[in-house]
Specification:
The chain is mainly alpha-helical. The protein has 25 helices and two strands. About 75% of the residues lie in helices and about 0% in strands. It is found in: Membrane.
């Protein structure tokens, strides 16, 4: 059902759109909400579902050198395109635009599932990232247009919880699917739910958050309306940074001209981007007026550090389970359940009781730092009690801290600002994941060679590095296998210092989230009840007329 807006609360009036908004309610709203929550799960699930399948993928394609790009390709496109997709949704009708991004995501999955080479698989992941960028931003825009201001905070909270759930269940689903159906089915399984979401969108009327000009007229003026120069500078800086971290110490020496050029070019490009955005003001790719608010830049820093902490563990802990503990993909996913359960329980149970974001953000970062630091002590002889306990500490900490910037801005910014703010927070979170996975891969590869010389000198180090993680024991003689496992363990556990350091740094930025109460107040609930009665009454009047 549709109803015209009649706001009665100060909060709703503050977020009043520039045009006469029409909100969904009843069954259409909950159908749309269900579809968008499913989209949130899919976007996050795609990021981590191949983590437990990565060892078999590297074995299938016969190389481990591209392992970082299996995650980075998706993160690179979802990061670099997120700001641009927000502008696209401001220009074109939300329904058609959102469905287009769903199709792009499906095409990327199809290419990855049919990949004949590692490079083709990476291209599929990158195309899926393009679709995912629009899917996430589109979800926020559509929530804002379809839900009344009093409903948005609750809907946003549940949607963000779905992102966390999708991230943590990815390795479990990926492990089970890989073991029983094969790693390609980790991509095939996305197509049916995407089809279901498209079907729901075709059935429902989707309100617009801003008035839209005819599509043809918009296309003719597209070069004026989109900040193409800002996007080129922004994406260029992202690519240079990721290439530098990915290639440094592996394909090229850190002191090589290529790496130095990338590391010099990236900050110069960022400086040019800053000058360009200052010139464009609110017409730029990223609105500086919003980013300049203290809660936003502290939130962006925290999101970056939290993304670095979470995504590194999601990819490298399954590698440790399979290569050091000899677990199958499914068992490796099951062994990651302590992280998943702890993160979900902490995020769901504590959110309702949190009066101030900085307190829980600090506790979450401290718990994450302790849990990640303990992961560096793992060895082939570590008992299940060790790796379960360490995961619970880290998972609970991330479950608390990951959503604190989002909850803080919901309690501080107006509902109209929330979609733009969350897009910026998620950009920094995803970009951190891309960067930290490149750094972790560099640390791992650079440490594995010397470790093999120390623990398994008779083994061809290059053969181990270039083989898949599940093949390391097959290329070593029985006498050298214990040494190979020890070398792999030493190289992998070194990477867990990254999330530990990120969480420690994050602790010092938590106070910047502000001491505003973020829990729902009685007045807010009254406002919602009054507004809902107003909307229902107006609908009855419309029916009488």
């Amino acid at each position: 059902m549709l109803s015209r807006k009649r706001s009665v609360s100060p909060q709703a009036e503050k977020a009043k759109p520039e045009h006469d908004a029409i909100y969904l309610h009843g069954l259409p709203l909950w159908l749309l909400f269900t579809a968008l929550c499913l989209v949130s799960i899919l976007v996050a699930l795609y990021m981590t579902v191949i983590s437990t399948a990565t060892p078999l993928i590297t074995t299938h394609f016969g190389t481990i050198e591209d392992v970082d790009w299996y995650s980075t390709a998706y993160l690179l496109t979802i990061c670099s395109l997120q700001p641009l997709t927000g502008h696209i949704f401001n220009l074109f009708r939300a329904k058609a635009t959102f469905i287009s991004f769903l199709f792009i995501f499906a095409i990327g999955n199809l290419i990855g599932a049919l990949a004949k080479s590692s490079h083709m698989f990476i291209v599929g992941r990158a195309i899926a990232g393009i679709g995912a960028a629009g899917m996430f931003n589109g979800s926020m825009v559509i929530f804002t247009a379809a839900a009344s201001p009093s409903r948005r905070p609750q809907l946003f909270s549940v949607s963000f919880a779905m992102v966390g759930i999708g991230s943590v269940i990815g390795p479990v689903i990926g492990g089970a699917v890989t073991e029983h159906l094969g790693w390609r089915w980790c991509l095939w399984i996305f197509l049916p739910p995407i089809g279901a979401v498209i079907f729901i969108f075709l059935l429902l009327p989707i309100p617009e958050h801003t008035p839209k000009a005819p599509a043809l007229a918009t296309v003719r003026q597209l070069h004026h309306k989109l900040d193409g120069a800002g996007f080129a500078l922004f994406s260029g800086a992202c690519i240079m940074l990721l290439f530098a971290f990915s290639w440094g110490g592996s394909r090229f020496a850190w002191e090589s001209a290529t790496i130095i050029g990338l590391l010099v070019g990236a900050p110069l490009t960022i400086a040019l981007l800053g000058a360009w955005l200052y010139y464009r003001k609110d017409r730029g790719l990223i609105p500086l007026t919003l980013l300049a608010k203290p809660i936003m830049y502290y939130g962006c820093i925290l999101s970056f550090l939290q993304g670095a902490s979470f995504l590194q563990v999601a990819y490298y802990l399954p590698l440790w389970f399979q290569s050091v503990k000899g677990a199958s993909p499914q068992k490796g996913g099951i062994m990651l359940l302590p992280t998943c359960v702890a993160q979900i329980v902490a995020s769901v149970s504590l959110v309702k009781k949190i009066p101030y974001a900085p307190v829980w953000a600090m506790l979450g970062n401290i718990s994450t730092a302790v849990g990640s630091g303990l992961l560096t002590t793992l060895s082939a002889s570590s008992s299940s009690g060790h790796w379960i306990g360490y995961q619970i500490l880290g998972g609970a900490g991330r479950g608390i801290s990951l959503q604190m910037p989002i909850i803080a801005i919901q309690g501080t910014l107006s509902p109209k600002e929330i979609p733009i703010a969350t897009a910026n927070l998620f950009f920094f979170q995803y970009f951190a994941g891309a960067v930290v996975n490149c750094i972790a891969k560099t640390i791992f590869v650079n440490a594995l060679g010397p470790a093999l010389q120390e623990y398994a000198p008779n083994v061809d180090a290059q053969a181990v590095i270039h083989s898949g993680a599940t093949e390391i024991l097959r290329i070593a003689d029985a006498a050298d296998r214990a040494g190979v496992i020890e070398a792999y363990n030493k190289a992998l556990t070194l990477t867990f210092w990254l999330p530990c350091a990120a969480a420690i740094m994050g602790t010092f930025f938590c106070l910047g989230l502000g001491w505003h109460k973020v829990s729902a107040t009685k007045d807010a609930k009254k406002d919602e009840a009054v507004e809902n009665r107003s909307l229902d009454g107006e609908t009855e009047g419309d029916r009488e007329r």
